[in-house]
Amino acid sequence: MQRIEHTPQVVPFHFDLSDHVRRSVATLYSHLVTRPTGQALRMGIETRIRESDGPCVSVLDFTEVVVLDFSCADETVAKLIRRYCAEDPPAPAYFLARGVAGHHRETLETVLIRQGMALVADVTGVGPRLLGYATELEHAVWAAVEDAGSLGLAELPARVEGDGVGDAASTLVARRVVVPGQGGRLHSLSRLALSAA
Amino acid sequence: MKVIALPANLDEAAFDPMAAALAGARSGAVAAGVGAGETPPGPPLLVDAAGVRWVDPYGALSVLAVGHAARASGRVARFRPPASPEVTSYLRRMGFFRHAGGVYELHGEVGQGEDTESDVLLEITAVTDHGDVHRVVDRVYERSGTILSTQLGYPRELAMQFGTIFSEVCQNIIEHAQAPGWVATQTYHWRKRLGRKVVMIAVMDLGVGFRGSLEGEHAAGYAGRWGDAAALEAAFMHGVTRFRDPGRGQGLQQIRRLVGRVDGRVSIRSGTARISDVPDWSDTPPLEQNLPYFPGAQICIVLPARETPA
User: Fold this and answer.
1) Which residues of A touch B171 (CB under 8 A)?
2) What is the DSSP letter of A78?
3) Within this chain, do residues B41 and B177 fall inside the same structural domain, yes or no?
4) Do both B75 and B124 map to the same domain?
């Protein structure tokens, strides 16, 4: 894959969640269940983000995760997003889920929608998808950026129909599901994470 | 001595009469109390299972719960095992006597050891901390995958979410009951009732109950309507919890959704009320009130096989 011109520099972190949780709680837990497990996982991820020097993408890998319950998903994913996608986040962090199977997807969608959040996920057998809460227009703008890899704001109206395309793009930037670059370009988070890896 | 004679079928339907008998014994003890401000322990309680011919996980946990409640009120609790060797053998496989030994004085032959057979998906397991939840999920996952997909005909994705149900109901004990509890599950063939196989999950605790868990945060908003039924409706129907964290309160909602997808049934009894999601095949009322009081919460989940197994 070619590197995108004027690509923002991001540092990718890869978290194999099932492996990480084993280390975090020092027990051979093969499933991501319970709130304390989710808290331990989140604290480990936050530590890595704190240690980074600039924008970073945390890749949350669910490939080896078998059971994911709502409590753990809420403590890990939803609380990370709530904290780092707030107006004044502690660090410029992005999150990308990968290895997301159908049963993970349903759980993640549930906890995200409940709190009006969104997350980019590489869904197994499907490809990158925007999970959680987003309007139809936001989905369309996100998909256009995802398809193109990178788009200028001025290019969006030609690709996405509807009023308020610019506002939708701003919302997606604020929610950290696309990455802003130089000259108002928007970059696909999934492609950026892959190219930076 | 107060005697509670258990019925031939020891299942969810037997719970209310047991609770009534226990409450009657308690009020009798209070009536015979030795003075104001004192709570007399009352006479010993004998739970007589001699006539039991059939028992399911809910029935087995009921007996433990009744014994614990009696002990908590200071009474001596005794248990007479079933006369039927088959029922005693089943209870042994479920690990019942290991738990009952800490609650009851056992009066009768219960046999030795604990057989292990494949029809028991999860023996009676105490849930006291989050480590127990992990152990329950691990155990159920090991044993249930094949049963759910081949015997009940569930799609693989749905079978994978089975562990989530266990995780959420067990966490409900730890985070809301503020007291220990138990969980058990087994597969059956409900020939008469449904003509299909089912998985039954029973979960019980003797904690503060839904009313006690929610009262501090939410009772004022209900004014005169507050009670066990209102608390159950708030938690079961609307995901209300005592926590202010917006991510809380999803567990029961998601259990209802998953169970509803397979045309299953969920019921929760707490205090003096029971609320249920009722599929077409069940004649359980959606809400029952003014039941005999029993502490904590008692959950019953029934997951039937798909009508046309894959």
Assistant:
1) 34-35, 69, 71
2) I
3) no
4) no
A69 contacts chain B (CB < 8 A): yes
CB-CB: which of B133, B161, B254 is closest to A34?
B133
Q: For residue B87, report the phi and psi dihedrals to the nearest 5 degrees.
A: -70, -40
Return mean pLDDT, chain B: 88
Q: What interface predicted TM-score (ipTM) does this complex get? A: 0.85
Residues B83, B143 within the same domain: no
Q: Does A109 touch chain B (CB under 8 A)?
A: no
- The 3 state secondary structure assigned to B246-258 is CCCCCHHHHHHHH
**Parent domain of B82:** 1-115
What residue numbers bound the domain in which A147 lies?
135-197
Residues A16/A59, Cβ–Cβ less than 8 Å: no
**Tally of structural domains, chain A:** 2
* Model pLDDT for residues B238-291, shown as the tens digit of each residue: 988 888 888 888 889 999 999 999 999 999 999 999 999 999 999 999 999 999
Q: What is the rounded distance in angstroms from the CA atom of residue A81 to the CA atom of residue A95?
A: 8
Grade residue B119 by pLDDT with cuts at 50, 70 and 90.
low
Q: How many CB pairs under 8 A join A and B?
A: 83
Q: Which of B133, B142, B157, B252 to mutate to test the interface with A (most CBs of A within 10 A)?
A: B133
Q: What is the pTM of this model?
A: 0.87
Residue of B nearest to A68 (CA): B164
- Do the chains contact at A103 and B160, CB–CB below 8 Å? yes
Residues B233/B275, Cβ–Cβ less than 8 Å: yes
